[in-house]
Amino acid sequence: MNSMKTGIFFIILVFSAVLAASLFLGPSVINPFAMDGTTKVILFSIRAPRVVVAVLMGTALGASGAVLQGILRNPLADPYILGISSGAALAAASGIVLGLSVFGTFTIPVLAFIGAIVTGGIVGILGWRRGGLWPERLLLAGVGLSFLFSALLMLLLSLSTTEGLRRATLWIFGDLSMSDWSIMPYGLLFVAGGLAVSLWRAKALNALILGDELTHSLGFSPHRERFLLFVAVGLMTAASVALGGMIGFIGLLVPHIARFFLGSDNRFLVPASAVLGGALLCVADLIGRSLIPPMELPAGIITAIIGAPYFLYLLRKKNVLSF
Amino acid sequence: MFKWSVTAMIIFIFLFPVPCRAKTPERIISLAPNMTEMLFALGLGDRVVGVTSFCDYPPEARKKPKVGGMSNPSLEAVVSLKPDIVVMTTDGNSKEFEERLSSLHIKTYVSRARRIRDLAKGIRDLGAALGVREKADRLAADYKARLERIEALKPAGPKKKVLFIVWPDPLIAAGPGTVIDDAIKIAGGINLAGRSIAEYPKYSLEAILRDPPDLIVIGPDMREQDSGSIRKLARGLLSRLRTLPVVKNHKVFYVSDDLYRLGPRTIRGIEELRRVMDE
Fold this sequence. Notes:
Mean pLDDT of chain A: 87
Largest sheet of chain A: 2 strands, antiparallel
Helix content of chain B: 40-55%
Number of helices of chain B: 12
Largest interface: A-B, 33 and 37 residues
Oligomer: heterodimer
Structural class of chain B: alpha/beta
Mean pLDDT of chain B: 87
Strand content of chain B: 5-15%
Shape of chain B: globular
Distance between the termini of chain B: 68 Å
Order of helices and strands of chain B: HEHEHEHEHHEEHEHEHHHEH
Helix content of chain A: over 70%
């Protein structure tokens, strides 16, 4: 127990250090005790919102990945495998191409969110059989829809000739640079809600991994638990895509990195994946904007470049693949 | 000695082909929007039998049969139009496509002009290859004269720092090696994004606040085509930069797409840029 306490303390320490670094380091170092007007604007309306968006997105993706790998009983599952992101991308790109502005400045995020939720709903309906969701059906429905939507997106992109359309691809690659406060409350609401449900049902998720029969005998209804967790994952992923497009790697591999250290008890794994995901995206964004100023590199690229080698190193070093 | 002189002769023949007077081709296909514009400017518009789906200027170009995109034109469509020559550019068309065409014995002309300083020579070479040398020389001379006029009238005072935004969200600026970068320098300004690594860098908002431009230019503003959607998109960006004098003093300008292609409209684009810099 004592080592667990040290572990939690350590995690909080690292996370705070990452937050502080992301806020005060960057293309220029900010001294919080000597700030002029411009520096304040940079800190409060440029850096702070993007740090918060990075944390929200990373948290959502890390936690969703851990939960999904559990409910689908598949170590290769990630939040994007359900087609949620391709649905969001298709909706957002259509909005960009058609020049829609129904929701004002929120148009693109709202369209992405709607696209994600509708896709999640379709996957849910397709994965539903005899009063519940079935892991294999969900997975295959997600993969199938994902192919369909990606193809439609490519079709849309290749048919269009306007600049705006080609720029739609930029959105798809994920962008944190334009983050601002206005959209944050909604993002926070869905991510926090989804995370709360995941933590609340973490014990049931442990049971689900063991199989439906054991879940029953441990006193949980597999169908109900899977449904609740699926909705939680859907909300978190949709919010994350709406906040900043698609960021790869975190949803798939951060839960595995957490598993190397903590084992597969979801009561610890889900929060640890969330925190690790948030911290990793923060660091990646910090590197992306500081490396070659004034140019910025997309955070999604950096995430995989620093994350993947570390994951491979762990894979080599640690003996247990405790899934 | 004899061997050497033969080798020298062969090299000479291959390196300096005698320019035989080109006959004007009857059927021309253009695989790049800027080449299409040049062909029309050279008065060859009615000989153009195929263009890409990006060729939208002059308006007559839109009515021409399409052969696909710039990077992925349809070989079949090109062949079936039976062109005498296919006009291409190194800036957007693939070398593989040119090789395919050559292997099918279809004549190609590949323009290597990428920067404003290549423009006059580019149009002269194109004219020479297509048998309209006199017209091309006249156009080239006109471009040169207009360029010199702009350069001669350096604006008074210190050089202005210009940020040319090609897309507001996420923020993409025109960087080094682009026609826009050349244009800013010719118009007597400093391109704020001119020292980036990429041609079109994703530009940092922080960097703008730390080192603000004297004027912001946003393009392309195609009002008749997409009801000024670039203005709508730019609103968010400008509200985030509202503390800067450049936004407060309304030194934000929207320009046409004249500078987006190296072609007959480029000089007009530099003139437009110069006008907004003087405002």
